[in-house]
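Attaching the record inline, Q. Sequence:
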Amino acid sequence: MPVITNIMNDVSMGEGSHMIVRTPLWETMKKKGVTTDTLGEKWQISGSTIQRLKKNLSVSTNTLDDLCELLDCELADVARYEKAV
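Structure, as predicted:
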């Protein structure tokens, strides 16, 4: 388990040779006419979660699931794994 914990820490903090990015989320939201205000006001996504998304910090798989459901999209439309160059 320590290896998994270390990997998760690297991913959540954007360190190491890889990270999960949410660039696809912002592209999907733009295509669908959804703003961060919509996420908070209409769909009750907390302000702290929105800030974590904006800063590319870790969020729960439940949050990713909620975003996919609310935006009627696939996981690849909200997050992507990238290796650092």
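Residues 69 and 75 are 10 Å apart (CA to CA). Residues 2-83 form a domain with the 434 Repressor (Amino-terminal Domain) fold (CATH 1.10.260.40).

More tomorrow.
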